[in-house]
Amino acid sequence: MIGGYAGKILRVNLSRRKISTEVLSESWARKYIGGYGTAGKILYDEVPAWADAFDPENRLIFSTGPVSGTGVPTAGRHCVVTKSPLTGFFGDASAGGFWGAELKSSGYDSIVFNGRSSKPVLLWIDDVATELVDAQPYWGMDARTADRAIRKDLGEAGARVAVIGQAGENLVRFAGIPNDEANRIAARCGVGAVMGYMNLKAVAVKGERRVHIERPDLLRSVASEITRFVTSDPHVKSFTKAGTMLYFDLNWEIGDVPVCNLSRSDFGGPGDPGVQKLAYPDGYGKIIAGKRTCHVCPVSCRRVASYPASDKGEIEGPEYETVASFGPNCGIDSIRTIAEASDLCNIYGLDTISTGSTIAFAMECYENGLIDKADTGGVELTFGNADALIDTVHRIAHREGFGNILAEGSRRASRIIGNGAEYYAMQVKGLELAMHDPRAFQGGGLHFACTPTGGRHTEGLTLGHELVKTRPLLGIPVALDRFSTQGKARLVKIVEDWTAFISAAGWCLFTDDANAYPTEKSFLLAYEAVTGIAFTIEQALTIGERIFNLKKCFNIKHGATRNDDTLPKRLLIEKGKAGNIVKLDEMLGEYYQARGWNPNSGTPTPERLSCLGLD
Amino acid sequence: MIGGYAGKILRVNLSRRKISTEVLSESWARKYIGGYGTAGKILYDEVPAWADAFDPENRLIFSTGPVSGTGVPTAGRHCVVTKSPLTGFFGDASAGGFWGAELKSSGYDSIVFNGRSSKPVLLWIDDVATELVDAQPYWGMDARTADRAIRKDLGEAGARVAVIGQAGENLVRFAGIPNDEANRIAARCGVGAVMGYMNLKAVAVKGERRVHIERPDLLRSVASEITRFVTSDPHVKSFTKAGTMLYFDLNWEIGDVPVCNLSRSDFGGPGDPGVQKLAYPDGYGKIIAGKRTCHVCPVSCRRVASYPASDKGEIEGPEYETVASFGPNCGIDSIRTIAEASDLCNIYGLDTISTGSTIAFAMECYENGLIDKADTGGVELTFGNADALIDTVHRIAHREGFGNILAEGSRRASRIIGNGAEYYAMQVKGLELAMHDPRAFQGGGLHFACTPTGGRHTEGLTLGHELVKTRPLLGIPVALDRFSTQGKARLVKIVEDWTAFISAAGWCLFTDDANAYPTEKSFLLAYEAVTGIAFTIEQALTIGERIFNLKKCFNIKHGATRNDDTLPKRLLIEKGKAGNIVKLDEMLGEYYQARGWNPNSGTPTPERLSCLGLD
Fold first, then answer.
1. Within 10 A of B157 (CB to CB), how many other CB atoms are there?
2. Cβ separation of A399 and B55 shorter than 8 Å?
3. Which of A196, A243, B207, B293 is such that its CA lies 20 to 30 A from the CA of B4?
4. Which residues pair with A611 in a beta bridge?
5. To which H or E segment does residue B350 belong?
């Protein structure tokens, strides 16, 4: 097998409790790389159009790429792929930490689950045995408690555990799958709800194997160069120091941070004092007690939070997306409330973006009288109400009272509420938008409308490229006019394709977003060191394009039409803080053309699919 | 409002626990009649393509037609409409008894449920109040026990209750909704599982209102004439005497009764002694103790079964479909075992056709070594094993062990089992075929392939018309050569359209199948008496065609393609008892053409939809 791959896929039929092993096809590895590429191919081939997300014929696939878990810096990710219960389309989520590297060390590139156990089980993988274990004792536990209990009972303190909390068990449609003591989470698209549906509480892994590397000398030299760059480049050093909150101020300035469900420009009174209470370093810095890292990552953007009033000691510090989602987007200016909501989501196993966005949606419905205290169980669900925020997170995880409605996500909740509430659901294809207001950069609007998985920021968001990208990427001029639609179709396509390649290979996206590697060629060199395969940037882009089209084809197979490639109406008709609307119509046809898709239907043409080897 | 209608629709949002009333649009009543016509229009309009069957955005609609619950004989039916968890397409089921008439008397034509309650509830409707009542005390009860307990607790012995058993609670994909002490059941398409998903245990109704009749004198005279006919016509009298088992012998002779999952021609040894133990009167007659009726039905085809070894006293006698499904199709020759399995299905709330067919599928898998005792929990699941049959029914209802796999229906179970098991799943679009082997009559094969809801016998099966229909129907010559494909496309279309009309109006299908009315014009005269609207047969057929196309359009919206219009491969390549295969290819294009659909894609053309007022 090619270097970087364990070369094996583990198959677990939960209905029959049968475990088997397959060889990972080398031609698939070359064609779809890994991560959501190879997993996407399995999903496309095996899940019929008639299968729902909550269906024994859905698949839940944990997957790594060839650079995952090797000595390549910043490549500690794993992803989870499934048909999403939020969107009904291709769903994936990705997480850092150490779980993915551990899986690779256990001798498997991926695990494919199908069926549904009649009782709660967990999968335990180590070098001795791979087995399904009764998980009834852990059912009902939060993810952190379960993680610790499972390792204790297995007698393997060093095992790594991916485990759902109560949200996944209760089929909250935006439940994720936490790992590493619930400090990292594969959050988006409801992957944790599919795990809950399958009665699969956890996947615990302990591995001792080392994966074969084709050119270890080259890998050492590339890794050293990258590490030197990370520890000396001023921008990367800032990112290491501040973490993802480094970008909060800048994003705020340009009108990118959503405020009160994207309905306002500021919160907390004149002069935005709310923002100052959150921004790094003055606000956010007050609760930060240190940093953490993922597998082989000299960047170490993870934070540790600690503050006097907390009874939890040191917890994982909230990321930018989480601060924005529970903060400005819900009109909240208390960083401690945000940190608390963040940790609750981690242990319940909830996606903080969808949770915050769905609560912000409900707050706007409440303020506009579409729902009242009779609905919320007496809670005054207004923007800025910190107690109501925390209370609602609990209710969602347990599907209690009004939480039972919000647990369906904002799209479904808006239709349950009716009376025009759909206008307030900030989602695309059912997935709540990441915390970037695309009215601040046109390419972002196009991307949000067209990403196969819904309103994602991790499939090729062009924020940096339309603003202040510190260097040209892939021959695209930097700092394109963010308010112009010109050239955005091509920009979005290229960034999406590049993102698909590096994600499938196993890199953390911040490697690219934060320019943590010296140049794009560093990715290819590291890839070559591991796999022995030398790609040009064009070749890598073609592979990314293939993977992107594969996800799109899954959606077409499962009923997607051009109507699904759109944005919440608000973004098309109401000006945002940046003074603009998204002019989607000006870009969409051009984008389809750039992708070689039918310009009317937005469907990949047979010719293009044939070019990409997807026919 | 037009006569025959209560004129109101009850809306119940289970997520918000809100109940409201809407006026039934008169133009809809004229266009879609009622039953699954008007309910289908609501389903089409309101359920988005992305909503699954188990989804708060699905709808569960109980619906009656204008002749339901009036003095029109043989019109005591109600239907339940939803997106089916078995097929992902249009789902409906229909039941006799008295519940539908009671609903009409309560002042509503239909009830539309959406959302999902966070706790088990039941809906209670009487002339005083309409309210959601805590149903936690009844959760876990079988349908008959729950029916009695609910009426007792409500203090309304005369109320009529539609209530799911454990199968619906456990989301068995072919759970139905029993009514009238679980002796009748809206069985097909998994409607009971949707009710279970919604946490709706029951709908209890007590009504005192009489619906307005446009021409009471005409109704009296039509009803008298029909009753006279029923009580004097020799054929109808035979049907009254034997019930649906009247047809068992004839169906057996022509090779229509499926044997051992449609894989054999006989069972129980040479000369089919198994059949003799089941046939009426010698076999079936031994357990029959009397008959029962539905609302205003002089036919009274329902049976009462009683036999010494039973500890249940008098139970509802199994119908033809049930006897065939658990009998020859599972290789079982014990009428008592069949009666016991039948009653278990009634109280658990299981569709006997899908249950028997799914067990027969599993038996064939077992006999061919695709599954073994490790799968079945030690049960020897061979054809003819009566104990295994009963045991498996229990396991399915409770999703215990192997029952957890079979509870998904044969299509999903076959894919979970893998290794070619799909060949043994006798289903179309996921719905198990009714107990008629279409290799015995080509038109039946075409119809099974094309019915929007899957393998149904109640949407226009042409069995009678290809065999021994005692009189011409709608200008179609009777006794067409059943082995020829000629003329079948037109025949199937007309029978489907006529069936859609009389079903939507509220008639029991046996009125037509058993020729219980003097002529087809009797239907139109009764319809006119109730509604004041005089239709020609052509007008009625156009309405039926509209309703049929509406169901088809729902499927297209939810992703159906021409590939869904097919049959289990066995029926296309393996000769049945009648010595034939189904020559589907010879008929399908002609059928699409007869329907005015695109002959390649099988999609209704805009022109035809416009003609039908569906644009």
1. 9
2. no
3. B293
4. none
5. none
How far is the C-alpha of B581 from the C-alpha of B577, rounded, in Å? 10
Check if A194 contacts B (Cβ < 8 Å).
no
Q: Is pLDDT larger for residue B514 or for residue A403?
A: A403
SS3 A278: helix
Whether A132 has its CB under 8 Å from any CB of chain B: the answer is no
Instruction: Read off the pLDDT of each residue in B566-582 and give the average, rounded to a whole number.
Output: 97
Who among B13, B54, B399 is closest to A54 (CB)?
B54
Query: Any CB–CB contact under 8 A between A493 and chain B?
Result: no
Q: Is B269 left (phi over 0), alpha (psi -120 to 50) or beta?
A: left
CB contact under 8 A, A416 and B15: yes
Say which of B16, B54, B404 has its CB closest to residue A15: B404
Residue of A nearest to B114 (CA): A416
- Paired tokens of A151: 């390792």
Rounded Cα gap, residues A167 and A352, in angstroms: 12
The full set of domain ranges for chain B reads: 8-205, 244-425, 438-514+536-611
Q: Does the distance separating the beta carbons of B88 and A50 come in below 8 Å?
A: yes
Provide the CATH number for the domain formed by A244-425 in this structure.
1.10.569.10
CA distance B488 to B584: 11
Cβ–Cβ below 8 Å for B416 and A56: yes
Residue A459 DSSP one-character state = T
- Residue B183 contacts A where some CB pair is shorter than 8 Å: no
A residues 228-247 lying closer than 8 A (beta carbon) to B: none
Query: Which residues on neighbouring strands pair with residue B91, listed in sequence order?
Result: B82
Statement: A8-205 belongs to CATH 3.30.300.30: no
Q: Do A399 and B118 touch (CB under 8 A)?
A: yes
Average pLDDT, chain B: 95
Query: Residue A87: its chain B contacts at CB < 8 A?
Result: 50
Q: How far apart are CA B19 and CA B428, in angstroms?
A: 37
* Chain B: residue whose CA lies nearest to A87: B50
Residues A35 and A46: their CA atoms lie apart, in Å, by 17
Q: Does A140 touch chain B (CB under 8 A)?
A: no
| Mean pLDDT of the region A487-511 | 94
Alpha helices by DSSP H, B187-313: 191-197, 216-232, 234-242, 248-253, 273-278
pLDDT tens digits for range A17-41: 999 999 999 999 999 999 999 999 9
Partner-chain contact A16 B375, CB within 8 Å = yes
Contact B401 A56 (CB under 8 A): no
Question: Do A405 and B115 make contact, defined as CB atoms within 8 angstroms?
Answer: yes
pLDDT in tens, B425-452: 999 999 999 999 999 999 999 999 999 9
- CB-CB neighbours of B214 under 10 Å: 16
Average pLDDT over residues A513-517: 86
What is the pLDDT averaged over residues A208-214?
94
CA distance B44 to B614: 11
| ipTM of the complex in this document | 0.93
CA dihedral B605, B480, B425, A193 (to 10 degrees): 30
Chain A residue with CA closest to B59: the answer is A416
User: How far is it, in rounded angstroms, from Cα B567 to Cα B462?
Assistant: 16
* Count of beta carbons in the 10 Å neighbourhood of residue B127: 12
Question: Among 1.20.58.1000, 3.40.630.30, 1.10.599.10, 3.10.129.10, what is the CATH number of A438-514+536-611?
Answer: 1.10.599.10
Question: Which string of DSSP letters, residue by residue, matches B477-496?
Answer: PSS--TT--TTHHHHHHHHH
Average of per-residue pLDDT across A383-396: 98
Residues of chain B contacting residue A54, judged by C-beta atoms under 8 Å apart: 52, 54
Q: DSSP letters of B148-173?
A: HHHHHHHT-TT-EEEE--HHHHTT-T
